[in-house]
Amino acid sequence: MISHVCIGVNEFDRAFAFYSAVLGTLQHELKFCEREQPWAGWMAKSQPRPLFIIGKPFDGHAAQVGNGQMVAFLAPDRSAVVRAYEAALASGGTCEGEPGLRPHYHAHYYGAYFRDPEGNKLCVCCHEATPE
């Protein structure tokens, strides 16, 4: 259904460090990084898509945070949710909801919410029924 998701960033090096740390905990691979553009993209090792991309907006204007927009990354297990959340906060992110069950979504939904250093809202979640 989804080919790629692109997040606009203003400070590429800071964003690259943040997303490298967070996506590394989820075992996503860096597929490209072109600092002269600047842009970079990651993908899961096991799938050719979707691709997650960060970069300066194509139109040359400043990137802006969207109200009501969020990207949610799928974690293989609950401990990966915790590791990604911790990496996000250690890399300049801010908390929007600590790791935990969210039964109002469904009985096994385990997620954490945070913002990247530029204010983009992100989620990491696991839908598995039992902890590992």
Question: What features would you describe in this structure?
Answer:
The protein is of the alpha/beta class. The chain has one domain: 2,3-Dihydroxybiphenyl 1,2-Dioxygenase, domain 1 (Roll). 20% of the residues lie in helices and 36% in strands. It is built from two helices and eight strands; from the N terminus they run βαββββαβββ. It has helices at 12-25, 78-90; strands at residues 4-8, 28-34, 39-44, 51-55, 70-74, 94-101, 110-115, 121-126. The strands form two sheets. A four-stranded mixed beta sheet has the order 1-4-3-2, covered by helices on one side. Strands 5-8-7-6 form a four-stranded mixed beta sheet. A hairpin with an 8-residue loop joins strand 6 and strand 7 (110-115). Helix 1 packs antiparallel against helix 2 (78-90). The radius of gyration is 15 Å and the shape is globular. The two termini are 28 Å apart. 30% of the residues are buried. The model has no long low-confidence stretch (mean pLDDT 95).
CATH class: Alpha Beta
Low-confidence stretches: none
Order of helices and strands: EHEEEEHEEE
CATH 4th-level superfamily: 2,3-Dihydroxybiphenyl 1,2-Dioxygenase, domain 1
Total of domains: 1
User: What gyration radius follows from the Cα positions, in whole Å?
Assistant: 15 Å
Based on the coordinates given, report the CATH architecture. Roll
